[in-house]
Amino acid sequence: MRVALFVTCINDTLRPRTGQAVVTLLERLGVDVDFPEEQSCCGQPQFNTGYRHATEPLVRRFDRAFADHEYVVTPSGSCAAMVRDNFPRIAARAAAEGRGRELAEAAARAVPKTYELTEFLVDVLKVTDVGAYYPHTVTYHPTCHGLRMLGLGDRPRRLLERVRGLTLKELPGAEECCGFGGTFAVKNPAVSAAMGADKVRAVTGTGAEALCTVDNSCLLHLGGMLVRQGSPVRPVHLAEILASTEADVAAGGGPGRAAGAAGGAR
Amino acid sequence: MSRSFLGMPAFPRAADVSTRDTRLRANLTHATRTIRDKRARAVAELDDWAGLRAAGAALKDRTLRHLDRYLEQLEESVVAAGGQVHWAADAAEANRIVTRLVRETGEREVVKVKSMATQEIGLNEALAEAGIRAYETDLAELIVQLGDDLPSHILVPAIHRNRAEIRDIFRREMGKWGRPAPEGLSDSPAELAEAARLHLREKFLTAKVGISGANFMVAETGTLVVVESEGNGRMCLTLPETLISVVGIEKTVPTWQDLEVFLQLLPRSSTAERMNPYTTTWTGTTDGDGPRTFHLVLLDNGRTDTLADTVGRQALRCIRCSACLNVCPVYERAGGHAYGSPYPGPIGAILTPQLRGMAGPLEQSLPYASSLCGACYEVCPVAIDIPEVLVHLRERVVEGGPVTRGGARVVLKPARGHAAERAAMRAAAWAFDHPGALRGGMRLAARTRRLHPRRLPGPGRAWSDTRALPAVPAESFRDWWRRTRGANGNSETGGVE
Ligand code: SF4
Question: Structure pTM?
Answer without folding.
Answer: 0.92
